[in-house]
Design a protein that fits this description.
1 helix, two-stranded antiparallel sheet, 2 strands, 6% strand, single chain
Length: 102
């Protein structure tokens, strides 16, 4: 046996990897920004505009038709009164189809 100790291997210099400027994590891409982070950053303004437009549209729809029927209501064709869906007769005397003959 040899009493000589082994010579350690030389460790190459480790280069620090770039950090993504959007999410702050180590990036695997050569540019330093993850592709999904770059896409998110590019689309941020467009998404903000779309959300604002959708919000404005929803508020105008709600304000435009406050007298609209809910899914649980129906209109009497004779007097145009709102009734519950299960109601078979209106106070004006109109009978809806399926009304039992009593």
């Amino acid at each position: 046996m040899s009493a000589k100790k082994p010579v350690p291997l030389e460790i190459p210099e480790i280069k620090s990897r770039p950090v993504c400027s959007v999410c702050g994590k180590v990036s695997y891409s050569p540019g330093g920004v993850h592709p999904q982070c770059a896409e998110e950053r590019a689309d941020a303004a467009r998404i903000t505009r779309l959300k604002e437009a959708k919000k404005a549209e929803q508020s105008t729809v709600k304000a435009a038709a406050p007298e609209a029927l809910s899914p649980w209501q129906k209109l009497c064709p004779k007097c145009r009164r709102k009734l519950h869906v299960r109601k078979l007769r209106c106070d004006c005397g109109h009978r809806f189809s399926g009304a039992d003959e009593k």
